[in-house]
Design brief:
Elements lengths: L13 H16 L3 H8 L3 E10 L5 E12 L5 E8 L4 H17 L5 E8 L7 H15 L8 E5 L5 H15 L23 H17 L7 E5 L3 H12 L3 E7 L2 E4 L6 H11 L9 E3 L11 E4 L18 E3 L8 H9 L3 E3 L1 H4 L2 H15 L5 H26 L3 H20 L4
Parallel strand pairs: 3-4, 3-5, 6-7, 6-10, 10-11, 11-12
Antiparallel strand pairs: 1-2, 2-4, 7-8, 8-9
Helix pairs in contact: 1-3, 1-13, 3-13, 4-5, 6-7, 6-11, 6-12, 11-12, 12-13
Length: about 425
Amino acid sequence: MIAAALPLADEKNPWLAAEVRFDNAAEKLKLDDGTRKVLKSPAREITVNIPVEMDDGRLEVFTGYRVQHSIARGPGKGGIRYAPDVSLDEVRALASWMTWKCAVVNIPFGGAKGGVICNPSILSNRELERLTRRYTAGIIEMIGPERDIPAPDVNTNEQVMAWIMDTYAMHVGHATTAVVTGKPMELGGSRGRREATGRGCMIVTLEALKKFGLKPEETRVVIQGFGNVGGMAARLMAARGFKIIAIVEYNGAVHNPHGLDIEALMEHRADTGFITGFVGGEDIDKNEAMFLDCDVLIPAATENQITSENAEKLRCRILCEGANGPTTAIADVILAEKKIFVIPDILANAGGVTVSYFEWVQDRQGFFWNEDLVNTRLEEIMVGSFEAVTAYGEKHRVDNRTAAYMLALDRVASAMRLRGLYA
């Protein structure tokens, strides 16, 4: 188990947390110092200043990043997020997690990530388009179907991917659908992509239930986040028979011990903009909802939600990490002491990148699959990866997160050794 080697003051720095987990797995694998240095360091990173003409004629300059952590196993793969708190350390950490995530599910991608410091909620659609196109132009030497394939992330969507694809096409002189994933269906997107991350969370949770002898209809679930990941997970799990007893959002939480009607709650949120005030549930304190007694907790919002300050209060049996980095490295120690079964983020939310891989394959083939085939192949990969991680953990007597990191590092290090060092 990870020692609490990270100073408390740095607990919420995602890059430092990623380093602690990396070092823990590398030590157990007995990786040599040289391999550790290569695998820990980002292969390439770029910072771009993005001038944008605003609707009122002003010029603003935004800062954007793209980090390629590793391309040992294939082209970089990772989303682009737009948020006021984006930082280079955050993007580095997310890129490294993408490396390990792709390796855990054994798809032929490396890890990358991008971000722009902005508040998209106060930008018009035209300003977002100009920002996106100029950012794309700034990183265009890094991206491409065989170099680095962006995707949607926090505050980006299919439309943003369409703008990136079009900007890239204007530079190279021809349409290249495989340069991004998470695109609109009309531009080469894949069936099942929108639901993929939430579906992946459901699949690995179903596998975890087998270890506890639980059935979905007996399982109480709390979900933090009601966006693409949390909302889709809630919808799919409710349809499968899970009892979703609480949904937690940034602006409130709603609870029903007998299970929420997720479809009705989605309609209520669409009509009012809030999940609170829902007739099928009771409003509760959003800061306490995560600590309800439940069988499964799915944090599906942002990083650093479970920390040394609140991990002791968790009352779940299974923690399925739908978000990237929702648990700090120091909190891992507490979860282990509480014997909470953790399905780590680099496994739990890998459904999205898996179907992104399917989309990339379909674009390159020019042959598209039906949704049943997409979902069947996703389930095969997620179930196989869950079994590989838990078997690795049992064999090496480590927790699931350490097992996932060890398995991923082993695969990436093996690829690196086989390729050799170009000099």
